[in-house]
Structure formats: C-alpha cells, structure tokens
Write a structure and sequence with these properties.
There is one protein chain. The chain has helices spanning 2-27, 35-51, 68-77, 99-109, 114-119, 149-155, and strands at residues 58-62, 65-66, 80-83, 89-92, 124-126, 140-142, 162-167, 171-173, 178-188, 192-204, 207-214. A hairpin with a 4-residue loop joins strand 8 (171-173) and strand 9 (178-188). The chain contains six helices and eleven strands. The strands form two sheets. Strands 1, 3, 4, 6, 7, 8, 9, 10 and 11 form a nine-stranded mixed beta sheet that branches. It has a two-stranded antiparallel ribbon with strand order 2-5. Helix 3 (68-77) packs antiparallel against helix 4. It is α+β, with helices and mostly antiparallel strands.
Length: 220
C-alpha cells in the first residue's frame, strides 16, 4: 500500500511538472523557437542601432507596421544601390532585382496582384512593433498614425525634438539570401519631415549586414 502511494505521488509530480512546462512554453515569445523571426529582428535592430548616434534625442517607434506591399512596390521600381560598410550609397545595381524572385516574394508575402501592388499608396496598416522587439529600451512607442489629426494635435505643441522610425516586417528574397524591409523615418519638430526607402541585408560570416538600399520613384 505504501509503495502504491509513493507511485501515485511520483505520477502526480510528473504530470504537474509536465503541465507547468507546457504553460511556460505556451507563454514564451515565438521568437525563442523561430529563427526566422530572430533574423528579422536582428536586421531591424542593427539598422536602428547604427542610426542612433546621439542618445540625447528622443527616438520614437511607430507601432503600426508598414505593409509589405510597399516593400514589394519599391523593390519592383528597381532603383537599387550598393552601400558601403557605413551604409553610404556607392553605385547603382540593376542586377539585384529579378522578376521571377520578386514574384516568388509576392506570392509568399502579399495577397495583392502585381497591378494592385504597383498602385498601392498606403504605408501603415499591419500590427505591431512592441518594446520586446528592440534591443534599445530607451524608445518611445506611438500607436497613433503619423500625420493623423490626433497625432498632429499631440505633437504640434510639444517642444521636444523627436526622430521617428516606421518599419515593415522584413521579407526574405532570393531563397533567403537577403532580408528586405521598408523604413519610413524623419523628425518631428515644428512640423513633420520624412522619407521612405527599402533596406537590404545579406548574411555574411554568420551576421546580417546591409548591402543595398532602394529608393521609391518619387525620389528618383
């Protein structure tokens, strides 16, 4: 009888531990178990860290993600440039864009047709960047849509100078050789200023590094 009681106690302990582990795994971020998400966050953080040179400025992250259709649209324009190690434009690279590779990405990341992507105008309509996605914890996160009445009302009389960044989720390109994302960035001080472009990263020696950037046709 004592042996049976011991077995029952051990069995209960095993079941409770198993349940606890299941609950722990369920509540953990998917990022821990998904290397592709880790890659995507790596390139966003690398880009942002290289941009933030002065910690005295307030850095705002717009939580709404730019739609990946915008990345595909700018990529298709094929105004793409090599960049050096400091992300300075060097020369144009017309060979980067490949129609068949673009179409693979469209089918994977978009529900839109080629024509719909080419005609798209919206930048932000997907959710959402959070503090947990970024290495830098001294960031301000803003849920309001930039340029909206509410946004302008909130910041028009604010005396602070803000740099802001809005990102799309990175998409893979050319059989995961590259990660590409759109960034819309600028500053807020007595009005709004900003510009958009796509950023390309390639993995070299186990680390993602920026190799290209692409401009929308309204900058060309």
């Amino acid at each position: 009888m004592k042996k049976q009681l011991v077995y029952i106690i051990i069995l209960i302990f095993i079941i409770s531990c198993g349940s606890k582990n299941n609950r722990t795994m369920k509540n953990n971020p998917v990022l821990i178990f998904n290397d592709s998400i880790s890659d995507k966050l790596e390139v966003i953080n690398d880009f942002l860290d290289k941009k933030i040179n002065d910690s005295s400025y307030k850095i705002m992250i717009l939580t709404k993600k730019i739609n990946s259709d915008m990345t595909l649209k700018i990529l298709r324009i094929n105004d793409i440039y090599f960049v050096d190690s400091l992300a300075k434009i060097e020369k144009q690279d017309k060979a980067f864009y490949k129609e068949e590779e673009w179409d693979k990405s469209r089918k994977k990341y978009s529900k839109s047709t080629t024509v719909e992507i080419e005609d798209s105008k919206g930048r932000i309509d997907e959710c959402c960047w959070t503090m947990e996605n970024f290495n830098n914890k001294n960031l301000i996160f803003e849920e309001l849509k930039i340029g909206s009445v509410e946004f302008i009302k909130k910041y028009s009389s604010n005396p602070n100078f803000y740099f802001y960044y809005s990102f799309s989720e990175p998409i893979y390109y050319q059989d995961k050789e590259y990660l590409i994302f759109t960034v819309f960035d600028g500053f807020i001080f007595d009005g709004l200023s900003g510009s958009a472009k796509i950023i390309m990263y390639k993995k070299k020696n186990g680390k993602w590094v920026q190799t290209h950037e692409g401009l929308p046709n309204w900058f060309s």
